[in-house]
Design goal:
Radius of gyration of chain A: 27 Å
Oligomer: homodimer
Number of domains of chain A: 3
Order of helices and strands of chain A: HHHHEHEHEHEEHEHEHEHEEHEE
Shape of chain A: elongated
CATH architecture of the largest domain in chain A: 3-Layer(aba) Sandwich
CATH class of the largest domain in chain A: Alpha Beta
Helix content of chain A: 40-55%
Distance between the termini of chain A: 73 Å
Number of strands of chain A: 12
Largest sheet of chain A: 6 strands, parallel
Structural class of chain A: alpha/beta
CATH superfamily of the largest domain in chain A: Response regulator
Chain lengths: 342, 342
DNA sequence: CTAAATCATGCAAACGTTTGCATAGAGATT
DNA sequence: AATCTCTATGCAAACGTTTGCATGATTTAG
């Protein structure tokens, strides 16, 4: 009981005309008699004719699939970005293929390898935190596949980029902490291979410097992952040391949240004894007690703009000269309960 | 500077043999001379030949794309399920296309409409909460596209189904609350069109009955969405009424979390004055104070099994008789700080 | 030494659609 | 009546690969 789809030939046979006429009729070709067009369209509708997309792809040698590569779809941050991408792409003819690299450059390279087998129309990528070598990404460019890099920068790689101003986001947060009376501000940062982490770290350092506060190595703690559990040890380290900080600026909300819980367990009052500010503004961050102060990122807009830029690139005529876009979104400081009011 | 991919014909020309021989050489056809095969393979490698997947798809009239339709990729629950699906599908030849219905039957139907234009190998779907009519899903079946429904049941639709035992998950949670001394247990439930909500409600009701507690209509509050904000009003309603409950069993963690915050704002102590149990066990639920008691669902396993069942169905030989799978996963009650110890 | 069997390879069709070019028929112009 | 110009349609190639069948060359058997 194998389904055989209606083809253009079936319609042609039924109406005793050629396949080309049917094809043209369905495209409203001006050279055709109105009568013929109508007959074709009527039968096509009656028989529920659907063009065979695989024949089309084959003919044109391009597919209508756009790939999105993100480090982790489980995190709110990337799933919100993907939502933005979808909201732009769904109304178009393009379909979206979402791939997760699990923060691993190896998996990322494997994904690109697999994608290069199926032809794709374009790629949106937020590189893995371990991606320091861009050969696999360059391979896409060599194959003339339109590409947009978002959220995380690939220094030295020329491509469309849509980023967030992590530096000034971090700077503002730390500057606020200082203005609210904190003098010993620690920073829990992540993998130093990652551009976003570095920009945030730099913002932290510069805010201290600007306010004539010392930059202490013991106050900068590196952690590996982005998950809640990765915030526990660093916080214990800070709060059980001799030189206890009066504020923690965490690289993201998850770390901030577990710093909060760890501080509470160690009987610190928030924000009286220790202020905490995160980064991301995940939806549940408001619901903690006290509610988390954090840095909001326009992640949905970032997804949308990335998708728009990619679409534009894909639809560029052959010869047109390509102008690389470099877009940076501003963050917003959201002060809630884990930091003192100015 | 348009890239022209190496084709089988290019190799054939270079070696002065026919395209068919090249094709067979690459497939290790036994009738070919070892010598020829090696020459072909060597050149294919040297020239970095990649089979044209669109030609293949066209020839076979099937694609290697599997679609996953979920109500919302932003929620931890579905993104974790998708991760399970990916972990099964990525090592195969299949590619995954993820689509979000935004809990809307209209968008869901639109997605299926769009998907039926591109041929797809199979579909995994967690239906939207508003999906009460299954015509669009049946259309897939009519087109002989393998299908697995997961997480949410479509009563009356015959298909592979992979679900979670919401009923007993809810029953156990409420039974626990009663055993811990609660006598006036309220339930914040969701959209009554949704199978999972109904099973949870039924489990709640039956647990009360089994323990000879009255089922009070005023203790069953319906809310529309699944987001944090949807839990505020219902909780206020409950805690500001004349008959104040001593426990709230919430339909999911997000609602539970906002019930928690609302209760705290109204100066209830948790769990002394009011116990709270959620459903889902999202990663951040542990990090609230007190940590949220909840019902864990094996969502990752559910995703994996769904993908495995779909793969099996896709690879079924033409005539083989199809046996519909109906799998139900057990939940696990996770008692933390928002409920009293027994 | 001829016929049969085996081996290695080529030919051509098929998948569905589009599109440049050709052409049949009708009407208009000389 | 011969030529020209439209108008409406058909023909055939192209996209890359696979595969059943045919075929030429070589080896083996009788």
């Amino acid at each position: 009981m194998k389904r055989t789809r209606i083809t253009i030939k079936d319609i042609a046979n039924e109406l005793n005309i050629s396949a080309s006429t049917v094809s043209r009729a369905l495209q409203d070709h001006p050279a055709l008699k109105e009568e013929t067009k109508e007959a074709v369209k009527a039968l096509a509708k009656k028989w529920n004719y659907r063009p065979n997309s695989m024949a089309l792809n084959f003919l044109r040698q391009t597919s209508t699939t756009i790939a999105v590569i993100v480090p982790d779809i489980t995190s709110y941050f990337f799933s919100a970005a993907v939502t933005g991408i979808q909201d732009i792409l769904v109304p178009t003819q393009y379909n979206i293929m979402i791939c997760a690299s699990n923060e691993s450059i190896e998996e990322e390279a494997l994904i690109i390898e697999k994608l290069s087998k199926v032809q794709i129309a374009g790629v949106l990528i937020a590189p893995a935190s371990t991606t320091t070598n861009f050969d696999h990404i360059r391979k896409l460019q060599k194959n003339n596949i339109p590409l947009v890099i978002f959220d995380r920068d690939c220094k030295g790689l020329e491509a469309h980029k849509v980023l967030v101003d992590d530096y000034s986001g971090a700077f503002e947060a730390v500057d606020y902490l200082i203005k609210s009376g904190c003098k010993k501000i620690a920073h829990i940062t992540g993998d130093s291979d990652l551009s976003t982490n570095n920009y945030r770290l730099q913002g932290y350092v510069d805010a201290l410097k600007k306010n004539n506060l010392p930059v202490l190595e013991e106050f900068i703690i590196h952690t590996q992952g982005f998950k809640h559990k990765d915030g526990i040890k660093p916080t214990e380290l800070l709060l059980e040391s001799k030189n206890i900080p009066d504020a923690i600026f965490a690289v993201n909300d998850r770390i901030a949240v577990s710093a909060m819980r760890t501080a509470k367990k160690l009987n610190f009052r928030i924000p009286e004894d220790i202020s905490i500010i995160g980064f991301d503004d995940e939806p549940h961050s408001t619901y903690f007690t006290p509610a988390l102060s954090t840095v909001w990122q326009p992640v949905y807009s970032m997804g949308m703009l990335s998708a728009r830029i990619l679409l534009h690139d894909i639809n560029l005529e052959e010869g047109a000269d390509l102008k690389l876009r470099y877009e940076v979104f501003k963050t917003e400081l959201v002060i809630r309960g884990t930091s003192k009011r100015i």
